[in-house]
Amino acid sequence: MPTSPSRLRAAVVGTGGIVTGSHLPALRAHDERVELTAAVDIDPDRLGTFRAAADAAGMSGVRGYTDLDAMLAEARPDLVLIGTPPSLHREQTVAALEAGAWVLCEKPLCLSLEEYEAIAAAEQSSGAFASVVFQHRYGSGAVHARELIAGGELGAPLVAHCQTTWHRDAAYYAVPWRGRWASEGGGPTMGHGIHQYDLLLHLLGEWSEIRAMTARLVHDVESEDVSTALVRFESGAVATVVNSVLSPDQVSRIRIDCAEATVEVTHLYGHRNEDWVYTPRPGLDDEARVMRWRTPAADLPSSHAAQLGALLDAHGRGERPPGSGPDARRTVEFAAGLYKSAFTGRPVLAGEIRPGDPFYDAMHGNHPEWAPKEAQ
């Protein structure tokens, strides 16, 4: 079917589980605004399976490629969705930007602040933008909570807790690129808890100081399998952050105690409005006000479709999309700060990791007890 001039041409890079299970339904949900025209994968069999799935979902005629550059030259997509292993994200994002396409890339967007700057330079030269997939920001419950906090409706944020306590077994880490600095960038700090603490940063704003610890307690991996942090925000609020892949009882949770109310979301891999709970401070007797906290106008689950919709809205307005630029950099810097604090044993201030700092180039910072031997 020919591409409608009113729809953007989209391509996917990588056709594994995350693209088939999440990006494909997201594209289908917005098929009035975007059309999937091409897919790239180095595995022809996996590519063929994906194209069949796209056809079954009503997206016929998707051209298959085993080479990214060839796809960019021939298909000339307006939007590229990237779902490959993390070590490929920087290179593929830059290539798509240089071809003039906007990018929506799976987390982490890149493996270091140095890699982020390469993406920022490609944005600057091309005029295109790259967003990272942090779909939990875009559910209506999160949008509502951010509006309430930013508007002062809940009072000043004071204390917060951010918890990603998941479980991953040895079979999970048998995948060669997992648990390795060069291919994943780190452990649950980079690959799992990043969703929750990105949402925490989205809700509370700029962080100013971090003090952290990491450990390798169970898994035979290069990186950590648990990390914890104490965080101070520019507002004065303080928070705890826990990232684990060792926890039998799995949960994702954020709790923010503000002066007028506590707001909490508890879920695992995605939230709806019902997962958000608002508890007014003792003595607050204003039921109409409390009801406003609890009743967002719509119930949009957090999802790739929700984030893709926000990106398409920004594209239509010609504006930088959410989750890109300094907004994306802040989350990368937070991860670097956590690792630097944990490995050096001292607090890290926002903005201190600059070129020349080993933690600017790699999350392990060439630390002798953590960096792979070939990096030392």
From TrEMBL:
Residues 144-263 form the GFO/IDH/MocA-like oxidoreductase domain. Residues 8-132 form the Gfo/Idh/MocA-like oxidoreductase N-terminal domain. It holds the Pfam family GFO_IDH_MocA. This is Gfo/Idh/MocA family oxidoreductase. It comes from Streptomyces johnsoniae. The lineage of its organism: Bacteria, Bacillati, Actinomycetota, Actinomycetes, Kitasatosporales.
